[in-house]
Fold this sequence. Notes:
This protein is α+β, with helices and mostly antiparallel strands and about 110 residues long. It has helices spanning about 20-35, 75-90, and strands at about 1-10, 40-45, 50-55, 60-65, 65-75, 100-105. The chain has a single domain (about 1-105), classed as Dimeric alpha+beta barrel (Alpha-Beta Plaits, 2-Layer Sandwich), CATH 3.30.70.1060.
Amino acid sequence: MTKFLLIQHHTAMGTWAPADVQRHYDYQRDLDDELDRAGELVESQGLAGDSHLVAGDGVAGVLPALSGFRIVDVETEDRALRIAARASAAPGPGGAPLASPIDVRRLLTP
């Protein structure tokens, strides 16, 4: 088994209808539950606030916002990519798939 970090980029929800926000969160929780039952989910976290780039002893800039991450432990990279594709397809306004960008990176530690 190999662990992968799936980093989900921020999607602004400020103008979404409350039902669309709820549908989106329900989809993400359902995916986490499915991965947990399959023994593939290590951790899942939402993120808040700005991302700061720190270099040396000072803040060098602000990075694009991220909405969350998952760590999955799977048999193959292909499986990690399929999980990322499902997370990317989370519903947005009106239930349409968002196709939000997700970075997939293999972790070096087992």
